[in-house]
Amino acid sequence: MSEPHIESPQEMDDANARPVDAPAPTGPAESAPAPTGPAGDALLEMQNVTLRFGGVVALNDVSFVLRKGEIFGLIGPNGAGKTTCFNAMTGVYRPTSGAIRFQGRSIVGRKKHQITRGGIARTFQNVRLFPEMTALENVMVGADAHHKTSVIAALFRLPRFWHEEHEGRRRSLELLEFVGIGKRAGDVARNLSYGEQRRLEIARALATNPTLLCLDEPAAGFNPAEKEDLLQLIRRIRDTGVTILLIEHDMRLVMNVTDRIVVLEFGKKIAEGTPAQVRDDPKVIAAYLGVPSDAA
Amino acid sequence: MSSTAATPGKNGRRLNGNLRGWFARQPVWVRIVGVLAVIALAYLLPYTAEIPLIGPQIVTEGIDWPSALFNMSYYVLLALGLNVVVGYAGLLDLGYVGFFAVGAYTVALLTSPDSRLGTEWPWLAAVPFAIAVAMISGLILGWPTLRLRGDYLAIVTLGFAEIIRIVAQSTETLRGDRGFTDIPHPPGQQTDGSALFGVRDATPYYWLGLTVIILVVLGVRNLDRSRVGRSWLAIREDEEAAEIMGVRTIKYKLWAFAIGACIGGLGGVMFAGQQGFMNSGTFVLQFSILVLAGVVMGGSGNIPGAILGGALISYIPDRLRGIQDPIFHTDLFGFRFAIFGAVIILIMIFRPQGLIPSRRRAMELKDREKEAAPS
Questions:
Q1: Do B247 and A113 touch (CB under 8 A)?
Q2: How many beta carbons lie within 10 A of that of residue B163, not counting itself?
Q3: Does the residue B311 lie in any domain?
Q4: With bands split at pLDDT 50, 70 and 90, how would you rate the model's confidence at B18?
Q5: pLDDT tier at B283 (50, 70, 90 boundaries)?
Q6: Which of B124, B208, B241, B291 has the most CB atoms less than 10 A away?
Q7: Which cellular component terms (GO) are annotated to the entry (chain B) (predicted)?
Q8: Packing angle of the helix pair A159-179, B227-237 (nearest 10 deg)
């Protein structure tokens, strides 16, 4: 079932033809400035973040700033601390020291679901859907993050239940269309192809109305055609006003789609800049070619 | 939408999926008529013996049929409640009898002349209190166990049920083995002036039980098909991912415990109202395990499965009463657990998803990696 799924070119053309508005994840992101360019305000600040597990330093004094409306790449060799970085941002791990601020407010110590509702959504490196639930239900779990229906309201089917349920379903179906798997809405997530599962994860994350979407190696295991589709999808998401943080191994994809990049190695930031700057940075070349870092 | 997801076929699941899929595709009125017909038939069950040929084979011999039906009704209630905790939220609870006991004891304390409280309320007045107390006990059990999963949770809940039983056995207020007598029956009069809920005929109790079951099913179904049900399933499937998607896992786990406890307490309330007598010996551990077996056997995570499973765990032993085995000439009821065990093993071999499988089957019985939640 992990067989790569190849989208028909037809489907992709449709997607491209879609106006940027359609299922725009609204919310705080609506005020986001022009999509490209480093001109946006700071959205997320990592300030001297250090994270230790016992004696292992997973993140060592990492600082960078994500600006509104950009596609930001986080790259580095295996074990560099990219996913740890994500986990610190989304409340899975608590930094040993340092500050993480989102929209000016510290999010260190906040609960995972609070951070999600605050506007940070993510996908997982190894897909973590709810396998026995349908694609639509998976996305609706995300949409529920902003719903207020209480258990009592659900039990007695009060008006708020009908309103939110209807609204949540409509939006979830739109999002499934948006990521290109609208036809699989009624299928159990477990039965989706690998590529569809990855897309479903993105739809589920978008359903929480994020200001910042963190994608953890979304192209892992994709063939070139699928990667191209994904690249288009990421751009379309950005065009709806969502800031994107992308962890990716595929250099070509990262260089193509990101506005700025931070490079991590052994938990430390070794470079930051535009794709072109980073590509020519000797430290980065050393990290990727395996030259001992002290030689760089 | 959910019902259109045909369960693709492992052995035995296909037929069922087709039947249910077929039913789901019918127009609304057909479905309503179908459900009403099933409900009407359920109310007519006490007259099963009247059916020629088949009837006498179905009814129990060693226990009168309406009583057997009433027993089934509170087992079904318990299975429905446990299904919320185990089937939906994926919290393996082995101490479910505890809530049944809490419900029954609250009724006994408030109504029985043996009670120290001396309130001697009518049965109906004690019902809301019993449900509320059961719900609170659910929260009391749920709160400290929120971080546990799988086997660890099972052990703690097991302890909970034993605490309730031992407290009942050894505290003077709860009267241990002597128990409570003269717990009043539900109110109501027949046209001839005799009590509707008497001691002779259990049929009215069964009808009451059935009515309560229908209300509980409606409630549970409403919850299941809402963000509450989705949150429970998401927690069962991947608790951490659920929380990262914005699900308040603590809140919904507590609700699962509270609702399960509520329904279990309701079962206890019904039980106390019919029996009139109960003591600490009523609430043994086997009871919890039996109900859990019923849920798993019927098909964890779906309402028809819980109903069928709950009914079977009561029906099979009752049907065995009064039948002599050919070798030892003893009552087969004595062998009920052996026979029962064999039946469960057969079901688990041939239908591992349960008799009425759910696409939302219990993952918690499979997952071994995440037993202790990461703290």
A1: yes
A2: 13
A3: no
A4: low
A5: confident
A6: B291
A7: plasma membrane
A8: 50
Model confidence over B94-138: pLDDT tens digits? 989 999 999 999 999 999 998 888 888 999 999 999 999 999 999
CB A50 within 8 A of CB A96: yes
For chain B, the domain total comes to 1
pLDDT in tens, B326-374: 777 777 777 888 888 888 888 888 888 888 877 543 333 343 334 434 4
Contacts with A, B 1-60, CB within 8 Å? 1-2, 4-5, 8
Give ipTM to 2 decimals: 0.82
Residues in chain A: 296
Could you give the CA distance from residue A124 to residue B233 in angstroms, rounded to a whole number? 19
Q: Which residue of A has its CA nearest to B259?
A: A151
Which of A154, A187, A191 minimises the CB distance to B222?
A154
Torsion A112-A117-A122-A126 (CA) sign: positive
| CA–CA dist B234, A131 (Å, integer) | 9
Structural element, H or E, at residue A97: strand A97-102
- CB–CB of A117 and B246 under 8 A? yes
Q: Which residues pair with A247 in a beta bridge?
A: A74, A216
**pLDDT reported for residue B21:** 67
Q: Which of B216, B245, B359 to mutate to test the interface with A (most CBs of A within 10 A)?
A: B245
Q: Which domain holds residue B152?
A: 61-284
pLDDT at residue B122 in the model: 92
- Structure confidence by residue, pLDDT tens digits, B144-176: 887 887 789 989 999 998 999 999 999 888 888
Which residues in chain A are classed under CATH 3.40.50.300?
41-119+214-296
Residue A226, both tokens: 């699928």
Distance between B245 CA and the closest CA of chain A, angstroms: 5
CATH of A41-119+214-296, one of 3.40.350.10, 3.40.50.970, 3.90.1300.10, 3.40.50.300: 3.40.50.300
Q: For A191, name the nearest residue in chain B, comparing CA atoms only.
A: B8
b (16+ CB within 10 A) / e for A147-170: bebebebbbeeeeebeebbeebbe
Report mean pLDDT in 10-residue bins for chain A, 296 residues.
41 40 42 45 92 90 93 89 90 92 92 93 93 93 93 94 94 95 91 94 96 93 91 94 91 89 92 91 82 52
Residue matched to tokens 């074990």 = A79
CB contact, 8 Å: B222 with chain A? Answer: yes
Pair A118, A110: CB distance under 8 Å: yes
C-alpha distance across the termini of chain B, in Å:
36
Q: Hey, what are B168's tokens?
A: 């009942």
Residues 6+ apart with CB under 8 A from A265: A76, A77, A80, A283, A287, A293
- Tell me the DSSP string of B315-330: HHHHHHTT-B-TTT--
| Position A99, amino acid | A
Predicted local distance difference test score (pLDDT) of residue B359: 55
